[in-house]
UniProtKB/TrEMBL annotation:
<dbReference type="InterPro" id="IPR015345">
    <property type="entry name" value="Cytokinin_DH_FAD/cytokin-bd"/>
</dbReference>
<feature type="domain" description="FAD-binding PCMH-type">
    <location>
        <begin position="64"/>
        <end position="244"/>
    </location>
</feature>
<comment type="similarity">
    <text>Belongs to the oxygen-dependent FAD-linked oxidoreductase family.</text>
</comment>
<dbReference type="Pfam" id="PF09265">
    <property type="entry name" value="Cytokin-bind"/>
</dbReference>
<dbReference type="InterPro" id="IPR050432">
    <property type="entry name" value="FAD-linked_Oxidoreductases_BP"/>
</dbReference>
<protein>
    <recommendedName>
        <fullName>cytokinin dehydrogenase</fullName>
        <ecNumber>1.5.99.12</ecNumber>
    </recommendedName>
</protein>
<dbReference type="InterPro" id="IPR016166">
    <property type="entry name" value="FAD-bd_PCMH"/>
</dbReference>
<dbReference type="GO" id="GO:0071949">
    <property type="term" value="F:FAD binding"/>
</dbReference>
<dbReference type="GO" id="GO:0019139">
    <property type="term" value="F:cytokinin dehydrogenase activity"/>
</dbReference>
<dbReference type="Pfam" id="PF01565">
    <property type="entry name" value="FAD_binding_4"/>
</dbReference>
<dbReference type="InterPro" id="IPR006094">
    <property type="entry name" value="Oxid_FAD_bind_N"/>
</dbReference>
<dbReference type="InterPro" id="IPR016170">
    <property type="entry name" value="Cytok_DH_C_sf"/>
</dbReference>
<dbReference type="InterPro" id="IPR036318">
    <property type="entry name" value="FAD-bd_PCMH-like_sf"/>
</dbReference>
<keyword id="KW-0274">FAD</keyword>
<dbReference type="InterPro" id="IPR016164">
    <property type="entry name" value="FAD-linked_Oxase-like_C"/>
</dbReference>
<dbReference type="InterPro" id="IPR016169">
    <property type="entry name" value="FAD-bd_PCMH_sub2"/>
</dbReference>
<keyword id="KW-0285">Flavoprotein</keyword>
Length: 526
């Protein structure tokens, strides 16, 4: 269904757009009679203010900087459609990037010399002031692409409901995570967030405003999910909900042996039916290394009194592996949850005496990274460079990765700071028609090096990241980047592998003038 809009005309809009065009050196004079320009008051929403430009030139990564010529602060999807239409129909089109919360780390939401659409401007300005509508009867929420997941959580919890698939950190937009995948400890069971979308409204690179789902405009639906912003701007997503639990039993187990750690992880994710009550609700894993404390900014979990014994274990082994699992419960299951958790733990090969547990509210658990963020912010340590590297690695090669990377490059360089995540997921929970790229094996691991660095030291981390990629290439580890960033077309073609042709075809179909998300540098990397 193609939607069309009627807009009031404003001469000031034409003035500002003309100005933006002249700054952008777009040669064709603006056709003031063009009905689509008359159709919208872009003037009040386009900003060339230095502070808006500055903010749109940066992201969480703090490594890339690219200045747009203007920033659009839309108050409705129609504003975005009008901007895209304007660029699409111009003889010299300009790039347009939706910026969600700007938590990319490599400039993916930037548009050098183009226009950045500040999606957050739409938050709370539409749909009766909420941007999130919950259907209690049909168990879904319609949420604006600009909404933060924390707001989705709060709005749905009001009805005792919640989505099932999350990211570790909730101050990310719905449009931003659906453009990648949205993974966390629930992925092994429910799939990534992109596997949990019923339908979407999307404005394509041709300015068509389409509703898409597995049955309606399905090519666009699958293209956009994990599509790195290349095919359209998501303005609404319908997310399925389930009754929310009240609390969680949260357990961490320590291992000195990688093989026991991964065997146990794989055993635990083998129970993964959505409706299987004996399955875990969350499973992740991480490395503990000599960083002064077994806790890191993302989590303070271990009791203080146990720090010395954990630290001495780390000192002895260099790296300790931490398995993290969760079981939900509510009033109905509160009497049985401990017994169930005990059954889960039976037969696992963690180090005796190194099991730690917590019992916290469901929301506190989901929002667990927030307190670390606030602490870092108060110390001025949040807005520092983040030379992150996120990878997917086939199960059959994760042991080689441990030997060569964790126990090789990482220990030798001895610069790794911040969390290093490692946990498995099931390929069957992903839909191959989507644009997201994952390894071919049924079980694969995600590894996230979530470094924070000093302003002068990020290059050392970048060198380490390159070393890791070189090692994988040399030894034939079939690694795929998550939140990928490459600088040449060849690298992108290699990244997409057998999906490249379809990805490219979809680009021609939905964004033939290559307007959208230029900061990903897939189609405009020269
Ligand atoms: P942005 O950085 O603003 O945009 C990302 C890309 O999506 C850009 O290409 C942009 O143009 C495009 N885009 C944005 N909005 C839209 C839209 N509405 N329609 C179409 N395209 C759009 N990821 C996980 O999967 N799991 C995690 O647990 C996780 N934890 C994180 C923790 C932190 C502290 C940070 C900083 C990031 C984390 N991420 C995680 C990564 C995160 O999911 C991605 O970086 C995501 O893109 C960030 O969302 P955003 O709203 O900031 O998107």
């Amino acid at each position: 269904m193609v939607m069309s809009f009627q807009f009031p005309a404003y001469f000031t809009a034409i003035f500002i757009i003309t100005r933006v065009m002249s700054i952008m050196k777009i040669s064709k004079p603006l056709d003031v009679h063009h009905k689509d320009i008359r159709a919208v008051d872009l003037a009040t929403k386009l900003s060339v203010d230095p502070s808006a430009i500055e903010s749109a030139s940066r992201d969480f990564g703090g490594i890339v900087k690219a200045e747009p010529e203007a920033v659009l602060h839309p108050s409705a999807p129609q504003d975005i459609a009008a901007l895209i239409k304007f660029s699409y129909s111009n003889s010299v089109p300009f790039g347009i990037a939706a910026k969600g919360h700007g938590h990319s780390v490599r400039g993916q939401a930037m548009a050098e010399n183009g226009v950045v659409v500040d999606m957050r401007s739409m938050a709370n300005k539409r749909r009766n002031g909420t941007g999130i509508r919950v259907s209690i009867d049909r168990l879904y929420a319609d949420v604006g692409g600009e909404q933060l997941w924390i707001d989705v959580l709060n709005a749905t919890l009001e009805y005792g409901l919640a989505p099932v698939s999350w990211t570790d950190y909730l101050y990310l937009t719905v449009g931003g995570t659906l453009s990648n995948a949205g993974i966390s400890g629930q992925t092994f069971r429910y799939g990534p967030q992109i596997s949990n979308v019923l339908e979407m409204d999307v404005i394509t690179g041709k300015a068509d405003f389409l509703t898409c789902s597995p049955r309606m405009n399905s090519e666009l639906f699958y293209a956009v999910l994990g599509g790195l912003g290349q095919f359209g701007i998501i303005t609404r997503a319908r997310i399925p909900l389930q009754p929310a639990p009240k609390r969680v039993k949260w357990v961490r187990l320590l291992y000195d042996d990688f093989s026991s750690f991964t065997k146990d992880q794989e055993l635990l994710i083998s129970k993964n039916g959505r409706k299987d009550k004996s399955a875990l609700d969350y499973l992740e894993g991480s490395l503990l290394m000599d960083q002064g404390s077994p806790d890191n900014w993302r989590s303070s979990f271990f009791p203080h009194k146990d720090h010395p014994k954990i630290i001495s274990l780390i000192t002895k082994h260099g790296i300790i592996y931490c398995l993290e699992i969760v079981k939900h419960y509510d009033d109905r299951t509160k009497h049985s949850v401990d017994k169930e958790m005990k059954q889960v733990l039976q037969g696992l090969n963690y180090m005796p005496g190194f099991m730690f547990g917590k019992d916290v509210g469901y929301e506190e658990f989901l929002n667990r990274v927030r307190s670390g963020e606030l602490k870092l912010k108060s110390q001025g340590l949040w807005d520092v460079p983040h030379p992150w590297l996120n990878l997917f690695i086939p199960k059959s090669q994760i042991s080689d990765f441990n030997n060569g990377v964790f126990r090789g490059i990482v220990l030798e360089r001895n610069i790794t700071t911040g969390p290093v995540l490692v946990y498995p997921m099931n390929r069957q929970k992903w839909d191959d028609r989507m644009s997201a790229v994952i390894p071919d094996e049924e079980i694969f691991y995600t590894v996230g090096f979530l470094h924070s660095s000093g302003f002068d030291t990020w290059e050392a981390f970048e060198d380490q990241n390159k070393d890791i990629m070189r090692f994988c290439n040399k030894t034939g580890i079939m690694v795929k980047q998550y939140l990928p960033h490459y600088s040449t077309k060849e690298e992108w073609v290699h990244h997409f592998g057998s999906k490249w042709k379809v990805f490219q075809h979809r680009k021609y179909q939905f964004d033939p003038r290559m307007l959208l998300s230029p900061g990903q540098r897939i189609f405009n990397n020269n």
